[in-house]
């Protein structure tokens, strides 16, 4: 029995961890932390899990935390900079730590501090952290105790570009990702832009060229391609609960045909349980992955402009957050990677 | 290994049967029937199940159907009057039949013919059909070979009223159910009212006092209460994919307190895995049951008007259709009733 | 030129007043008040009105307010209890005041204080306040300086019941209104239930038997019928921006036929520009009134249960708030009642 | 009094023409054509206009059509290739014709026939047709009798790129437009992809590099820039009723600063009533133009990649179709261009 605890369980990513873990017979959730909702039953905040998971949230201090002694795995689903001390403490106690925040995704503390405007308190741990996209670095994940779980946008973009970049496919022109996210990507915080009346029936770009996921994506793309790779990244909010679609544009400098492109992606992903490469002429839709750990990828070559268009969709809360975190946990524990993640998508 | 076939698998109820059954290790889907989509892979019509269930739809003639020889259980998810011959044939071959249409829900062929404006072709089988709400008539379900799976609205209303009526609670005033359904309740047919642009951002009543679920509900309520029980039923379409909420109004002629009412419902449902009775002051929301086989029930007594308000929510495609059908199948096969139905609701 | 000021212009009702008034050539908006958004241009909070209305919000103290000297009409769109002093001051200065809060809707200060849990500071003005549904009390509205603008739910229900009750139609059974509102009815406040992810794809009843609009509705219904009239009122939140549908159930004790019922409603409303009585068999949809000052009413008689079902829809922000406020202003100023309110509904 | 007729008035663009024209005192709608809905009152298909416009649809033969003798202006809102004969006939009768289909947008009949797979029946009229974006070619519009009303996507993209291209701004890299449309852009046809349950809660690209608007856009962009200009155009369907957002990417080869870019756009559009250039750092949202004839444009320069990002939003049914058609009609008739188009956007 794997014993796990979840920090920051009152947000959507935390709640999704609970939903996905609670039904496993080989996992026990020992605690769900939230200072704001301490002593309130989890199922009062998330009534869908009434009678499924009724434990109370626990408040806690992250230093010398006795809760940590009771678990094997610690998930951190707090906003960035809020759980660094907890991560450090948990590592010292020998736990396996999976951090869903941005804190351990960048290798360079200075870059982190520039983009997140806060000093990193545990920068010495950055070197040991492994960026967790199993389809790309499965072996490293198996060996680490500190897993930096990728952001939602980055997951969709990196999986979309991986085969091309891994093959050394380069371009002198800027790669562009025009990405669209459902509103749950903005969390359950009380912000005007998250209100139903403000967010529904509209689509809007934001943080043009300045979104914090940019350095994370570029660092990973550069690591894959072996050279500095830049991306123009424009995120948008779309009026739906879940889902990310990244429409990625890259110059087709090697003049690949659509068939060649598809063959390449199938070669990379045919053994991957959670990546589905669509057939020629098909485009992905976020609905088809909703509720699942899948990433669907569609591919097109526009011969007139000689551009490659890669379209990648995920459920932002599952493959883009909690599902991938569990996939990583499975690997870190030597379990079958798909355990607890085989729920089919839900439609409609 | 239980071998099943599904007639009418191209609609939402059929697709939901596939989604729920395909992941079971003790069930094998032998065929999915659709004349309109014959030889098209299921996952072309339902791309969420790509690589999960890629079998092709089969066209078939329902008389002397050899497909039926290959299965133990036949699900019929066709519109009313379309599968009566198939049901007859399957019963003769010794299959267990679960019919999701309205064809075997009413005991009286004349009532059926009046409301559905078509002659019943297998009226001799009506007597043996069992109406399948396990929480109410579990034992009869175990013993039948012909299961009439309830309608979505009826399930929400009957479960909502069951404890009161079973206790002989009667009233001289009309019981009212103001019910609201998501658009999937209207199916995947190409109708103007089902279009996104017509159905979103609006709510509308329809079939006031004339919905075909009315005789089905009244027959069941009368059977429970032991006397003729009438219902004023007004369905509405609400702009959401899934979910039914029935807000039921009944005169509180025995002057029950809210605590007494809650105690009664808890007594009836505390052992029921799929019915959750909310606490005092709580109201149910369809989101909390979405993706699950739950029925959530909230209760209130308005002392000023002395009315009882029962609020009952289900996922119309699961507890209101395919989930309940599987729950019934489990009982008919002597399996644990919850097998394959323990997926937690999804939120948001 | 009519000069108007708006208190509480940062909320949806206030913004809708601006939208509807700004295009009139006979009206000038002198100030829009908001303490929270003082000195911020209106069109920064409401970007749809960029280049249409860019004035800044003004903070103000409501006693001896010099702003009030500059206007003829004061609209108060603040929450209840926030503008009573302003109303008093404005009346003393001779302004015509239209209050969209609940503060002057109830005749009895004690009832107000019981339901709103706050002492009324200007209870002496209650007697002079006129409840403003023009279709019902047009003449009184013309003569008042203090207009209590009705709530959104009450408008839909009272217009729905008015002809029946006015004709002395009584019943021994409880009248029920099962009402459904779009999310804008809950305002632009930062509340968890107003979040897109919490409010979309679900429908939920709330405040069963305890909504603050109940005494307001009952007082008006009793005034119309001439005897104490009670209502069981259950509001629901539906996942749409705008719109209210009230489905009203009343025993048909005089055995009216559907034709008689329609004839009665047509007699009352045929001259009313903003009330449309649907034809036999038609049901109203909130989309058909969205963006307009219309109230659409559908009628049905269920012969089996002998119930009358009245279905009434409005745009909660227009006929349910700001449109009706302007309709009332027009009457108070001796203008054509429809001035500035003839924009057709928008579909889809 | 201007007398107008509308062919194809049963679709959304036709209905929007009715809604916008019916309230004008200087315009009379003489007929609304639809063969499918002949003799059915318009307000039965569009109940929002009950009591506003109740005339019946008329069926008609387009040759020697006597209806045409009764009007000054003919709007054609039929699908492509369906009204070419009507256009020819109307021109011969001296009417001013505004065609909302694609039939007269391309100068070259061969290009038309290649993309629309049908022979053009009135290709001789292509030369006299004027492409109607008033902000770009106002004078030519005033002088024509045959107005080709632009597509929705093209309007958003061309207005977005116009100042840059007009200034001779060129690039060796491909210009990309990642465009997102609400579902009304797909019309009111009974197609599976238009169903609520299929279209809501998802976003999906389609027609990648092959959308029929591509040649139209490229022809106009080339005409503006004075040289062949290509565009990589990827449309998407977003789950909302109305609105188009085009996010346009173009290499910043002249190294414009954001301030310079804004100054350029303000210079071009400051006199334009229907184009609003946002301030630095602001991004447009489709909600802010919904229900209006506005085009909002946001601008950004990403210094890292040296890309310009132009974000352009319109209401696809108004500035993208019927509103712009009326704007063109006003110009063709010598009226104030804004007549009947000053309704403010609606929010929420």
Automatic annotation (TrEMBL), chains A, B, C, D:
SUPFAM superfamilies: Glyceraldehyde-3-phosphate dehydrogenase-like, C-terminal domain (SSF55347), NAD(P)-binding Rossmann-fold domains (SSF51735). Catalyzes the NADPH-dependent reduction of N-acetyl-5-glutamyl phosphate to yield N-acetyl-L-glutamate 5-semialdehyde. The keyword Cytoplasm applies. It is an enzyme of class 1 (oxidoreductase). It comes from Jeotgalibaca ciconiae. This is N-acetyl-gamma-glutamyl-phosphate reductase. It catalyses: N-acetyl-L-glutamate 5-semialdehyde + phosphate + NADP(+) = N-acetyl-L-glutamyl 5-phosphate + NADPH + H(+). NCBIfam families: argC. It comes from the Bacteria. GO terms for molecular function: N-acetyl-gamma-glutamyl-phosphate reductase activity; NAD binding; NADP+ binding. Its EC number is 1.2.1.38. Pathway: Amino-acid biosynthesis; L-arginine biosynthesis; N(2)-acetyl-L-ornithine from L-glutamate: step 3/4. One of its GO terms (biological process) is L-arginine biosynthetic process. The lineage of its organism: Bacteria, Bacillati, Bacillota, Bacilli, Lactobacillales. GO terms for cellular component: cytoplasm. The active site is at residue 152. Keywords: Amino-acid biosynthesis, Arginine biosynthesis, Cytoplasm, NADP, Oxidoreductase. It holds the Pfam family Semialdhyde_dh. It is found in: Cytoplasm. Belongs to the NAGSA dehydrogenase family. Type 1 subfamily. Residues 3-144 form the Semialdehyde dehydrogenase NAD-binding domain.
């Amino acid at each position: 029995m794997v014993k796990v605890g979840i920090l920051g369980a009152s947000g959507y990513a935390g709640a999704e961890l609970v939903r996905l873990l609670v039904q496993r017979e080989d996992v026990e959730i020992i605690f769900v932390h939230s200072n704001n909702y301490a002593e309130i039953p989890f199922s009062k905040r998330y009534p869908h899990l009434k009678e499924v998971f009724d434990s109370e949230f626990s408040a806690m201090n992250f230093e010398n935390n006795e809760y940590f002694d009771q678990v094997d795995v610690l998930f951190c689903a707090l906003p960035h900079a809020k759980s660094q001390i907890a991560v450090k403490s948990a590592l010292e106690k020998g736990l396996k730590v999976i951090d869903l925040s941005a804190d351990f995704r960048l290798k360079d503390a200075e870059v982190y501090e520039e983009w997140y405007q806060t000093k990193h308190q545990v920068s010495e741990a950055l070197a040991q952290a492994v960026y967790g996209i199993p389809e790309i670095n499965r072996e490293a994940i198996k060996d680490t105790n500190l897993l930096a779980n990728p952001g939602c946008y980055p997951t969709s973009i990196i999986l979309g570009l991986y085969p091309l970049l891994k093959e050394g496919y380069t371009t002198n022109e800027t790669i562009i990702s025009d990405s669209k996210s459902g509103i749950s990507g903005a969390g359950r915080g009380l912000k005007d832009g998250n209100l139903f009346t403000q967010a529904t029936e509209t689509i809007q770009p934001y943080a043009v060229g300045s979104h914090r996921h940019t350095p994370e994506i570029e660092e990973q793309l550069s690591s894959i391609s072996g050279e500095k790779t830049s991306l123009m990244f424009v995120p948008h909010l779309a009026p739906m609960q879940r889902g990310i679609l990244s429409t990625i544009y890259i110059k087709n400098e090697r003049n690949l045909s659509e068939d060649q492109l598809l063959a390449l992606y199938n070669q990379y992903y045919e053994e991957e349980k959670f990546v589905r490469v669509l057939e020629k002429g098909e485009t992905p839709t976020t609905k088809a992955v909703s509720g699942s750990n899948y990433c669907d990828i569609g591919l097109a070559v526009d011969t007139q402009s000689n551009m490659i268009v890669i379209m990648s969709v995920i459920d932002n809360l599952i493959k883009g957050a909690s599902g991938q975190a569990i996939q990583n946990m499975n690997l870190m524990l030597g379990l079958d990677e798909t355990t607890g993640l085989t729920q089919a998508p839900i439609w409609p």
